[in-house]
Amino acid sequence: MLRPTAWMRRSPVWMRSVRREVAAFGTVGALAFVVETASFNLLAFGPPGEGLLHAVPAGASALATVLAMLVGWFGNRHWTYRDRKGPVDPREVAWFVGVNLVGLVITAAPVYVAHRLSGSSSALSDNAARLTGWAAATFVRFTVYRELVFTSHREDPPDVAASSRRGSGVWRDDRLWPGFLALTAAVCGYLVSTVFHPGFLTADSVEQLLQAEGTRPVTDWHPPVMALLWRVLIHTTGALSAMAALQTAVLWGTVWVLAVALWKRTGSRPLSLLMFGFGLAPHIANFTGVVWKDVHLAYALLAVCAIALLARELPPGHDRARWALLVLGLLFTAYAILVRKNALPAALPVLPMLVLALWPAPGRRRWLITAGSLLAFTAAGSVAVSSLTHPMAVRQYAQIPLDDLTHVLTPREVRSAAGQAGATPSFRDDLVETARTCRTKGILWDAYFTCYPHRPGYRDTVGPHFTADEADVLVRMWVQQMPGRASGYAEYRARTFTRLLFEGNLRYAGGTFGGTPKNVRVDPALDALMRSYVTGLARDVPWLFQAWFWLAVALVLTLRPRWPGPWSRELRLLGLSSVLYITCYLPTAPQANYRYVYWPASAGTLALILIAAAALTRRRALRAAEQAPDGAAADASPTPSDSPSAAGVGNGRPAAGSRLRKREAA
Fold first, then answer.
1. Which pLDDT band holds residue 138 (cuts at 50, 70, 90)?
2. How does DSSP classify residue 457?
3. Distance of CA 285 to the CA centre of its chain
4. Most buried residue, 48, 174, 573, 634, by CB count within 10 Å?
5. At a CB cut-off of 8 Å and minimum separation 6, what does 157 contact?
């Protein structure tokens, strides 16, 4: 007993501290493991054989993991690192949650590799792989806990050599924080992509897939640019899941850029982590892996907003970087316009956001270059897509006058109007039957798919379409009849727009669509997990999935003349973009569908996060001003834009307030 004691006494102080921390950390970890295992079995199976969450095992696992994390938090904070304990710091909480999420991925990764790469699926191989992942995750947790999480009010003993001190200086360097944010975004994107793999398909998605695979000719009912992009991805990767993976990558890459921009502006790491809540919010995540043009539009415009917010943080100069960001933003904008016919009104306010972020006073020349470049990119893209895909004209626009005519006119009036417009007898009879069916069944809209008497197999070769003569007849009927029935037309469109605002009949598009091809199969357990996650919130907070709420948010964002904080202009432009986009559905709404307001919901969520970040930064600045000495308080300003960042001051980066003052002066 004397020899070990003597050795320990001769060992450095930091080594004795590490030995104690390892022992305490191991004890707390073992206790957390027991709590997680016991609570999961209790919740899933329970003493009588069926626990409270027996029907939702994924929920039982998630709750058990949360309980284990709480045990780890309190045990490590109050015992393992009790010498560093101080007031609860949001930075500690953010790091703790982040490293535990990374630990979950590290633990699961060896099992995934064992199954997918080596083909091993025995109980022995699974447990060996899980043990390997658990050991690696434990090492990562211990290292990050010691270096980054539990560091408040901790002073090294004076006899610890400088070379043996914790290497927190490197980890706290601002150059590594964007890398950590990128790693977190990559992990989140991978998890979301796994849930949606190989992509959730609806009727529209299947049409696009068949066109991309060459089974059907490309038509202009759905955007040809999307079919072309999917075709290129399939030929390049050999997997039809590449489109859903690309959507997820664009979203989480955008979230990463937004998080970096938020951190650079506020100097707060916890606030930058707040941006990850955007991609994980149920009303945003519900469509992340659904192959839809509405999703592509939303993510393209979000990418432009992210580029604009990041461009605001560029130091003076860097002209080449500014022009490169402008070109990248214009490419995203042009794609949004090509992928959705009504995207132009939504893109118009986003474009000034980008230009004014790059140049506070752009001048006439830069405005002309920007507008001309966007027109050139859009026109060139349209010509290139048309030459590569040769899309068939199926005249989708005729769907709008068909709705108006069959719901404003009576069946007898439809027959008379069709004859007056030169319709063939068969098409005239189809229109009359359409009007009669919609009135009998009380169907408000989408007459082409719900009331029109289609011939069997009409979608097998080409898909939904109108002939040129049919489209011309519908347009002539509309021009001849609607001016004299303005009140009836206004009443009908008011009803459809009201239904769009207050109903919202699709909040989740699962991976079990009946027309999905046989080679597209999603994981039913992951599908059920995502469905319960989204529909649970939709049941408790239904207004998050309704257009009226996001229209109200957009109107408030647009009409308020000045928002406190550094993003006043961006908030108002986001609101204006959403208002214009929703308003475009007043004369055209084909049904009440949440996907039609996916972009306003995305823009509104981003705006709410920016408002919350500005309010929290302002509160932090006020608290700092109150606690500062009289001389320092005199120089402090209680606004988010003027609040100095502790991270920014210590690393040579200008504080948030000084950057904003320089920008406003410019």
1. confident
2. T
3. 6
4. 573
5. 13, 14
User: 513 is written with which tokens?
Assistant: 């669509």
Tell me the percentage of the chain whose pLDDT exceeds 90.
47
Phi, psi of 247 (to 5 degrees): -55, -50
pLDDT tens profile 604-635: 999 999 999 999 999 888 888 887 765 554 44
Look up residue 642 and give its two tokens. 């003027």
What span, in angstroms and rounded, lies between the C-alpha atoms of 221 and 211? 11
The label of the residue with tokens 């975004």 reads: 185
Q: Which of 278, 96, 208 is nearest to 517 (CA)?
A: 208
Tokens describing residue 222: 């759905």
Its pTM stands at 0.72
pLDDT in tens, 63-118: 777 777 788 877 777 777 777 666 666 767 777 787 777 777 776 666 666 655 55
Cβ neighbour number for residue 199 with a 10 Å cutoff:
26
Dihedral angle of Cα 322, 327, 332, 334, to the nearest 10 degrees:
140
C-alpha to C-alpha distance for 151 and 88, rounded to whole angstroms: 11
**Which of 648, 570, 573, 608 is CA-nearest to residue 312?**
570
Contact 422, 476 (CB under 8 A): yes
Per-residue pLDDT tens over the stretch 167-202: 333 334 466 788 889 988 998 898 888 889 888 988
485, 493, 478: which is closest to 444 by C-alpha?
A: 493
219: its two tokens: 């038509």
Measured between alpha carbons, how far apart are the two ends of the chain, in Å? Answer: 73
Nearest to 326 by CA among 278, 374, 258, 256: 374
DSSP conformation class of 149: I
Q: For residues 409 and 417, give the distance between their C-alpha atoms in angstroms, rounded to a whole number.
A: 9
Point out which residues pair with 200 in neighbouring strands.
290
Q: Phi then psi for 160, rounded to 5 degrees?
A: -80, 125
Polymer length in residues for the chain: 666
pLDDT band at 127, cuts 50/70/90?
low
DSSP string, 241-310: THHHHHHHHHHHHHHHHHHHHHHHHH--HHHHHHTHHHHHSHHHHTTTTB--HHHHHHHHHHHHHHHHHH
| Residues contacting residue 276 through CB under 8 Å, at least 6 positions apart | 184, 185, 188, 255, 259
Cis peptide before 198 (omega within 30 of 0): yes
Residues 6+ apart with CB under 8 A from 593: 500, 504, 505, 506
CB 299 within 8 A of CB 253: no
Sort 368 into a burial class: Cβ within 10 Å, 0-12 / 13-18 / 19+.
Answer: exposed
Record the tokens describing residue 333, joined without a space. Answer: 């904008």
Q: What are residue 219's DSSP bridge partners?
A: 392
User: What local confidence, expressed as pLDDT, does residue 120 receive?
Assistant: 54
Contact, 378 vs 335, CB < 8 A? no
* Lowest model confidence (mean pLDDT) among 121-130, 224-233, 407-416, 570-579: 121-130
Other Cβ atoms less than 10 A from the Cβ of 626: the count is 10
- Enumerate residues 6+ apart whose C-beta is below 8 A from 439: 410, 411
Phi, psi of 55 (to 5 degrees): -80, -15
**Do 273 and 98 contact (CB within 8 A), yes or no?**
yes
Residue 295's nearest CA partner among 432, 199, 151 is: 199
H or E element in which residue 660 lies? helix 656-665
Per-residue H/E/C for 74-137: HHHHHHHCHHHCCCCCHHHHHHHHHHHHHHHHHHHHHHHHHHHCCCCCCHHHHHHHHHHHHHHH
CA distances from 288 to 190, 298, 374 (A): 12, 10, 27
